[in-house]
Amino acid sequence: MAARCSPAVVPRVASASAPDRASAAKAAPVVIPVVDSVARATFPRAARVRARSEFTRVFDGGRRVAHPLLSLHWLDDAQPARLGLAVSRKVDPRAVGRNRIKRILRDVFRHRRAQLACGAYVVVARPAARQADASAVRAALLGVLQRTGALPPDAHPVTLSVAAAASAPAPLSPSS
Q: Is 79 helix (H, G, I), strand (E, B) or coil?
């Protein structure tokens, strides 16, 4: 199984406003701690595949796993987990539909980023994703992440309906 990665936490130094510069020069700099972006579940620039060259590198050298709703290309490298999205007009001609799919995929990725193996992930949506509801798109992404080995099998949460069915008592048979 691949090693897990998380981005480094780097403290930022706050800058003083114009009237306070004289007093700020005399005082020690104020250090504002930055909370780990994975813990806050944000999606910073460092967690994105943005450059065309990086997309090409992932497509050419990565591993591909397919699902009817999407395909995942994963290039295992030493950098923390990064996500690139490709949702074309062929998937949905309306921008609002394409943005919905991207929003769902980003949400799953940012919440699971700490559990993912290092590497660049590029998700290519397929036209079937247009009609799929959010839970189906989430399940598809989690499924392909598990099939690649990038996400441990126990990291996939049990849905409420499955948990309720497992804990529900067996129905009583009518006595005759």
A: coil
Give helix 95-112 / helix 134-148 axis angle, nearest 10°. 50
List the structure tokens of 18.
């114009």
Question: Closest Cα to residue 156, out of 167, 170, 141?
Answer: 141
Q: What are the extents of the domains in the chain?
A: 43-151
Secondary structure of residue 162 in the 3-state scheme: helix
* Contact between 83 and 124 (Cβ < 8 Å): no
- Class assignment of domain 43-151? alpha beta
75-87, pLDDT tens digit by residue? 999 899 999 999 9
Tokens 């050419």 found at: 60
Token representation of residue 135: 């839970």
Return the pLDDT at 94: 97
